[in-house]
Amino acid sequence: MEGHANLEGLKFCFLFGPPFRSFLKITTLKSGMIFICIFDIIIGCTGAFEAVVFFIKFVSDLSYYYYFETLIGLLDFISLIFALMCLQSLENLSQGNISNYYSFKFYEYFLIVIMKLGIVITNTYDENNLILPTILITIIQRYLAIYVVKFVWSFDIRLNNNEVKLITIGEQALRTLNLQGRSAGSQGIQLNYE
Q1: Any stretches that span the bilayer, and where are they (predicted)?
Q2: Is 27 helix (H, G, I), strand (E, B) or coil?
């Protein structure tokens, strides 16, 4: 339990609090990671399609807007590849691909911020686009994306510290097992959960 106490003192990017213990406080870390990977796969498929469409428009129009949208679509497609590798690693909880997925999500977050900024800047000269809604939608998207990145970081850090039970059965079930273990221990019964 000493490793667990040390994890609660960690903060994501030094200011976003300790690692999560569940996904949206309703399901296990593993279930949440599966959901995020599947969502990334769906977004990656649409991103690949959008990348092709925006690239065709970029070649015909040579607009920076289409250039940035093409790059975002390509990032979504690359995210699909990392999500597939991560999903495969979730079955046996192997660390390598999960850590790679976290690293990619971390850098992807900042790359998309830069590209979205490029989209906003290139749209300021277009009279048909409304800048304020674009900025508000981008802020909401990035807020949700930082939650996803922190969640993937939480999963990775907990797996790295061998908190497999927390990842697979969840916080409530783990708490129940610990209470049962304490009461069995006080009665002289040894329980082994591994």
Answers
A1: 33-58, 64-85, 106-125, 131-153
A2: strand
Angle, in degrees to the nearest 10, between helices 64-90 and 29-61: 150
Q: Are 30 and 90 in contact (CB under 8 A)?
A: yes
Q: Quote the mean pLDDT of the chain.
A: 86
Residue identified by tokens 């569940």 is: 22
d(CA 113, CA 72): 10
Question: What are the angstrom distances between the C-alpha of 52 and each of 41, 69, 76, 97, 187?
Answer: 17, 10, 12, 27, 66
Structure confidence by residue, pLDDT tens digits, 147-172: 999 999 999 999 999 999 888 888 77
Within the chain, residue ranges assigned H as helices are 2-9, 29-61, 64-90, 95-123, 131-160, 164-169, 171-186
Among candidates 77, 100, 107, 98, which has minimal Cα distance to 34?
A: 98
| CA-closest candidate to residue 3, choices 172, 171, 157 | 157
Predicted confidence (pLDDT) per residue in 42-95, tens digit: 999 999 999 999 999 999 988 888 999 999 999 999 999 999 999 999 999 999
Give the whole-angstrom CA distance, residue 157 versus residue 19.
8
